[in-house]
Amino acid sequence: MGTIYRKSLKGIDELAFKTNGLPMRLMSYLSVVDGETSVEQLMARNPQLPSMEAVLQGLVQQGFLEVAGSDANVVQMNNMRVGNGASIPMQAPAPSYAPAPMQQPMQQPMSSNNGGYSPELDIIKSNMVKDVSGILGTDAGPVIQKIQAARTKDDLFGSMMGIKKIITIYANAGLAEKFAARYQSLI
């Protein structure tokens, strides 16, 4: 029975924004984790990464990874037979990262509290926070912090690729593209 890890939101944030300064060597380990492959399979696929099991456990302790399960609880589905005897291959559904419903929508635009106050930037940031909350649900916290930390449109634009990457991983690529297209035109 092999352990399966997945990236935590902190791990995804690290890959997207490099916020914690994780060394490139450890980033290599973090990037191979896909939430579906056991540690033993990762070791076989990546012989250039020594001490895989110990390093991954360290990344779990630091909060970059979390246990997704084990290969013993992976569902193996048989092909389904249809009326004419044909066989339809079945696949286990991908894990769902569907967002939880938003508890309290933002009502007021956030203020920058800096000398170059921009009501337009605050409105854009407020709308981005609403959208990210709706897409990522309870996992939106670190992304919202990135949005709120932006003091200029350039800062906000600089964060867009990382935010897009996180939405792609936690939701889907279509939502990420729509999000990026909407805000790149406003920034």
Unreliable stretches: 74-115
What is the beta-strand fraction?
A: 5-15%
Total beta strands:
4
- State the helicity in percent bands: 40-55%
Give the N-to-C terminal Cα separation.
Answer: 49 Å
Number of helices: 8
Alpha-beta classification: mainly alpha
Order of helices and strands: EHHHHEEEHHHH
The pLDDT mean sits at 77
Biggest sheet strand order reads: 1-2
Number of domains: 2
Shape call:
elongated
Question: How would you sum up the major sheet?
Answer: 2 strands, antiparallel
User: Radius of gyration from the CA trace?
Assistant: 20 Å
Q: Can you give me a brief rundown of this structure?
A:
This protein has 187 residues and is mainly α. It has helices spanning 9-17, 24-32, 39-45, 52-61, 119-136, 141-149, 153-170, 173-186, and strands spanning 3-7, 65-70, 80-81, 87-88.
List keywords for this structure.
187 residues; mainly alpha; 2 domains; two-stranded antiparallel ribbon; 8 helices; 4 strands; elongated
Task: Give a description of the structure.
The chain is mostly helical. It has 2 domains: 71 residues; 68 residues, no CATH class. 50% of the residues lie in helices and 8% in strands. The protein is built from 8 helices and 4 strands. The strands form 2 sheets. Strands 1-2 form a two-stranded antiparallel ribbon.
